[in-house]
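New to this. Please check this record:
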Amino acid sequence: MSPAALARRHGGELARFLTVGALSALLNTLIIVALTELLAIDYLVSYAICFVMVNCFGFILNRRWSFALSDPAGRWEMARYYLIATFATLIAMSASRLMVLLGLPYGPAVFLSAGVLAPINYFAHRVFSFRIGAEN
């Protein structure tokens, strides 16, 4: 299937996923900055602290709104979602650490690192987390 056909077929779904992702990245960044600035916690530790909370928000919104799944969540669906989120978070933490070492403030670095992973996360969650096949 051509990229144009994929965009037509999954454009709305992808737009909703990116909206949830942007909201999650913003929430993640705000929590990290708040924990780091108000409680003097290292930003990477703050990153780990807000991981569960923000990914729970993302799971619920992506399942119900982005991918419009209405059936009850499968037994392992959230576990698969968190597995993808764990790998993505480790990559994002590494990328944000590199950006900070290169001189970018940690707030923008955290936000940008999430955006870079968005397309990969979309396909990983669609295919692996929620088991939505190519026919859909």
Q: What stands out?
A: The helical segments are 3-39, 43-66, 77-101, 106-129. The mean pLDDT is 87.
